[in-house]
Write a structure and sequence with these properties.
The protein has 7 helices and 20 strands.
């Protein structure tokens, strides 16, 4: 086995939830990703919708057990010394499929090797092995320090996965709140935040303003959060379209470092969309349009795997006429742009 070392680290990541064009829902998950040689390990798995075992919404005792397992303080959960590295974001069933690897000691070092896609108790390396990934050798001190920090209170915090909705159209806000709760994001509705206690404001990760909210009202809300010493993301709702607003909120809640995101750029003008990704991944483009009667029209524009780099994708003229918007989505991030005409 090669004696070359890889660096090991951890960083916050998310599986982006959303209201999909076919009417389905995709659950939001916050988790801690593994950073190997400065890049998320998940990015080496081009079209995988998955989360690590270090998710924010698991009970604290289970989270701690997962960390101690990766530190090899407990026995391997699967035969042949195998551990789940990434699993299904919707459930914990191995039958859905998981990326597993052998994790072992080699002296003071930790080694991750024999990565495989696994749907049963035993992995078939010849048939389902990730032959281009690993093995990775990590220095023991660096590895233990990163994981031990999670036990010392650096675990992902789920309480900020709440948003405050401020707008004039109560019916729309109620639909938006219901959609957010369905995908795992808490939502509350108000017209202002003046009388909200500071401790309550600290529970929010984002504030969403409807289009009817004046600049003075927005300034008052910002002042309330500033007085409470709470930093939140502010979202200016582009249009009264629930899936579009959900996508904007998902982008606002993304706490992952910008330099470690897969989807880094989206522009939409002159009949085409410009998309930039940092590693091969599945990208979906969806257009939302308001007609003259303020009815919503949804069009799927593109769904495919893109290689790393910049891409230009033609837009259907009928799908993007008038007041329209485009949403670009990967498993881990979402971008939204108004279409310029």
């Amino acid at each position: 086995m090669s004696a070359a070392y890889a660096t090991f680290g951890l960083a916050p990541a998310m599986r982006a939830g959303g209201v999909l064009a076919d009417g389905g829902y995709q659950v939001h998950r916050d988790f801690v990703d593994f950073i190997v040689d400065g890049r998320p390990l998940l990015f080496q798995l081009s079209d995988l919708d998955a989360v690590s075992p270090l998710a924010s919404d698991v009970p604290p005792a289970i989270f701690t057990a997962q960390v101690r397992s990766l530190l090899l303080e407990t026995g391997a959960p699967l035969p042949d010394g195998r551990y789940v590295v990434y699993g299904c974001p919707e459930c914990e069933d191995l039958a859905c499929g998981a990326v597993t690897a052998v994790i072992e000691h080699d002296g003071d070092d930790f080694v991750w090797r024999d990565f495989a896609w696994q749907t049963d108790q035993r992995a078939d390396l010849e048939l389902n092995g990730y032959h281009g990934i690993g093995p990775f050798r990590f220095r023991g001190a660096e590895y233990r320090s990163a994981l031990a920090a999670l036990l010392d209170g650096a675990a992902p915090d789920a309480h900020r996965r709440r948003v405050l909705l401020i707008g004039a159209r109560v019916a729309l806000l109620a639909k938006l709140a219901a959609a957010l709760r369905t995908i795992g994001i808490g939502a509350d509705i108000t017209r202002d935040a003046q009388d909200v206690h500071a401790d309550e404001l600290r529970g929010y990760g984002a504030v969403v303003f409807g289009r009817a909210i004046t600049q003075e009202e927005r300034a008052a809300v910002r002042h309330s959060f500033a007085q409470a010493g709470v930093e939140v993301a502010y979202v200016d709702g582009l249009a009264p379209i629930v899936p579009l607003l959900v996508a904007q909120i998902e982008h606002a809640l993304d706490r992952g470092p910008a330099e470690r995101r897969r989807l880094t750029r989206l522009v939409a003008a002159d009949g085409e969309a410009g998309v930039e990704v940092t590693s091969p991944c599945r990208v979906r483009l969806t257009a939302y349009r308001l007609d003259r009667l303020y009815r919503t029209h949804t069009h799927e524009l593109f769904d495919g795997v893109l290689e790393a780099g910049s891409h230009r994708i033609a837009l259907d003229a009928k799908a993007v006429k008038g007041e329209s918007f485009v949403v670009a989505r990967t498993s881990g991030s979402v971008l939204v742009e108004a279409i310029a005409h």
